[in-house]
Design a protein that fits this description.
Blueprint (H helix, E strand, L loop, with lengths): L1 E4 L4 H10 L6 E4 L17 E4 L7 H9 L4 E4 L9 H6 L3 E3 L6 H17 L1 H9 L17 E5 L3 H12 L3 E5 L5 H5 L3 E2 L2 H7 L2 E4 L13 H6 L4 E5 L8 H9 L3 E6 L21 H6 L5 E3 L8 H19 L10 H5 L2
Parallel strand pairs: 1-2, 1-3, 3-4, 4-5, 6-7, 6-9, 7-8, 9-10, 10-11, 11-12
Helix pairs in contact: 1-12, 4-6
The structure holds 1,4-dihydronicotinamide adenine dinucleotide.
């Protein structure tokens, strides 16, 4: 099948080329992101392959549907960037990669916790400048600390298991309880109780209307003073302005952020020669107790290989007229 691959990055191109030897799809790799301004590149491609910062809004979908596109293959688990209602109306079918390596993301969230706590990011820069002082680098034992996990699906469950290994007390909030976690000693509590009791809070729910700004000024005010907040979910789970205020007032003690509300057009790009125009992001980068990375929690060899395998397999199913095992169904998700 002819595929227009948008927002191509070097880290994934060769992985897809290797996996495509099995399928022989005709792939054109575009480096540009898919937006209403680049959508005309899709003319003649029945399939679009999109990543997390491609803009699949109503206007873009309308242009690609009119150009003959029938399938959008997301090479991500999240689909919050797709206007599902519009896709449904336009007859566009959407497939995704529901699971590629929950370990990659959970392990990365742990890496953020450990780095922030033990100030590895600061120590690394210091010793390279010849500063071997330890002042300001005091951390805390993870053993016996209370960690709150918001969302105990695939990624959150693995987080819980890893944290159990560190000797942490694990609290969880989710609309569905996972009995295996309860058996492992994880305690499900209300959202507010989790906020009030946790020393560290890690977010693993999808971004849907109900979870947008789940962490707002109210939620932040309920948290313990000095709390560590970790977000490898989606940027808009947190109200960034409210977080900045809490960091300034020193109520939030640490923030580990792999995602950011306004990351589209910034994350994944090398902007080192440019003046950063996003004032909120610039402010976040001034805090010594904020560790911010560019949406890289998924980035392991295993995850990339699984993403390529599932994405090209999803497309092959569509081409052969089979049932789409990883279809995102508009009605089902809109009711969530
Ligand atoms: P999952 O679907 O397995 O788990 C999500 C959990 O959230 C489920 O247990 C569900 O019951 C719960 N949930 C959903 N809405 C809720 C609500 N309103 N209140 C309480 N609980 C709710 O998803 P998975 O695979 O664990 O991924 C979680 C999120 O992580 C994804 O949606 C995605 O946004 C993000 N992600 C980030 C990556 C990165 O590189 N930074 C990579 C992969 C995923």
């Amino acid at each position: 099948m002819k595929i227009a691959f948008f927002d191509t990055h070097n880290f994934e191109k060769s992985v897809f080329q290797k996996e495509n030897k099995v399928h022989n799809h005709e792939i054109t790799f575009f480096e540009t992101r898919l937006t209403e301004h680049t959508a005309n590149l899709a003319v003649g491609y029945p399939c679009i392959c999109a990543f997390v910062n491609d803009r699949l809004d109503h206007i873009t979908l309308k242009i690609i549907a009119a150009s003959g596109t029938k399938l959008i293959a997301l090479r991500s688990a999240g689909f919050n960037h797709v206007d599902l209602e519009a896709a449904n109306e336009l007859g566009l079918r959407i497939v995704r990669v529901p699971e590629y390596s929950p370990y990659a993301v959970a392990e990365y969230a742990i890496a953020l916790i450990l780095s922030l706590n033990r100030k590895i990011h600061r120590a690394y820069s210091r010793v390279r400048e010849g500063n071997f002082s330890l002042d300001g680098l005091v951390g805390f034992d993870l053993n016996n600390k209370t960690v709150g996990i918001v969302g105990t699906g695939k990624i959150g469950s693995i987080m819980a298991k890893i944290l159990n290994g560190f000797g942490c007390h694990v609290l969880a909030f989710d609309s569905l309880k996972n009995p295996a976690l309860v058996a492992a000693g994880v305690q499900y509590v209300s959202f507010d109780e989790l906020l009030q009791k946790s020393d560290i809070i890690s977010l693993h729910v999808p971004l849907i209307p109900e979870t947008r700004h789940l962490i707002d000024a109210r939620a932040l005010s309920k948290m313990k003073s000095g709390v560590m907040l970790i977000n490898t979910g989606r940027g808009a789970l947190i109200d960034t302005q409210a977080l900045i205020q809490s960091l300034k007032s020193e109520h939030v003690g640490y923030a580990g952020l792999d995602v950011y509300e306004e990351e589209e057009g910034i994350f994944f790009e090398n902007l080192s020669d440019q003046i950063l125009q996003d004032d909120q992001l610039a402010r976040l980068l001034t805090f010594p107790n904020v560790l911010l990375t560019s949406h890289q929690a998924f980035l392991t060899e295993e995850a990339l290989s699984n993403i390529a395998h599932t994405t090209l397999g999803n497309i092959a199913e569509f081409e052969k007229g089979k049932i789409l095992s990883n279809e995102v169904c508009a009605e089902k998700n809109l009711k969530k």
